[in-house]
Amino acid sequence: MRVLIVILWASALLPGCGAMIEQSTVSRRFESTFSCPSAKVHGTYGGYRVEGCGVTAHYACFRSTRDPHQDHDHSRNGKAFAGALVEALVGAAFQVEDCVMEHSQRDAVASAGAEVDTPVFATRDASGPVIKTRMLIAGGRLELLGKPVLHPEHVLLSVHSQRRLPPSCSAELFNDGVPVAIERTERATEFEARVLLRVATLREVDRSIRFAGQVCGLEFTLDESARKALGNFEARFAETRARELAKSPVATAQP
Cα angle at 146 between 142 and 148, to 5 degrees? Predict the structure, then answer.
């Protein structure tokens, strides 16, 4: 009986603990992005509003329904190579449950309302450096991920929709009206699709006037901040690869 009471008590605390952890994570990200250790976090519908150091940022929280037991057999459709690349990049994908910055602005006194750029992150896993960024779009979000050493030519664009995606999935991307080459498209779950791209297609997207497209029926147009993030991603990807190659024994041995 005592064990049952403890279990029920712990279960009742879990939702509250989860919210506290989530709020703490948002606070740390705000501090890291804006170098502001004295922020105040306020809960809003579907996310948080964080204020501090003359900046107000809004975070949206998403919970994906990705099935961890889902298995994709890519060899049957004759695209085993592209499928293997997708699976390798998925291994470094973002957390299933997370909060991302939707938009931010500085106080009028600080910067006349200028927006803060979408950040590009560089981390490492067992296979080497990982470059990634997130962008909010109407009806969902985009996540871009690449491994510049392990897969120097490809990146994975994941599209997370707030509504169920249709079973048949296709994708189109356009940079200033010019079609962007897509190597593979797959519907990973009812709410997520993945698009395999060559990283070279993102070069100088930050100078574009318009970058738009649709993935599995979800249409989107990237704003200036998101386009700048794509260009920054490609530059960070190339820089990271160059740095890693310079540190390799083969590169060091060459004259």
Answer: 160
Residue among 202, 254, 210 nearest 232 (CA): 202
Per-residue confidence in pLDDT tens, the chain, 255 aa: 554 444 444 444 444 565 777 888 888 888 877 778 778 898 876 688 898 888 888 887 765 444 444 444 444 455 566 766 777 666 655 444 467 776 777 765 444 444 556 778 888 888 889 999 988 888 888 999 999 999 999 999 999 988 899 988 999 999 999 999 999 999 999 999 999 999 999 999 999 999 999 999 999 999 998 999 999 999 999 999 999 989 876 544 444
How far is 217 from 219, CA to CA, in rounded Å? 6
CA–CA gap between residue 176 and residue 167 (Å, rounded): 29
User: Nearest 5°: phi and psi at 126?
Assistant: -65, -25
Residue ranges of E strands in the chain: 40-44, 47-52, 55-63, 97-106, 120-125, 128-137, 140-146, 154-161, 171-175, 178-179, 184-187, 192-198, 211-215, 218-221
Q: Which structure tokens are listed for 245?
A: 């190659």
Phi first, then psi: what are they for 253, rounded to 5°?
-75, -20
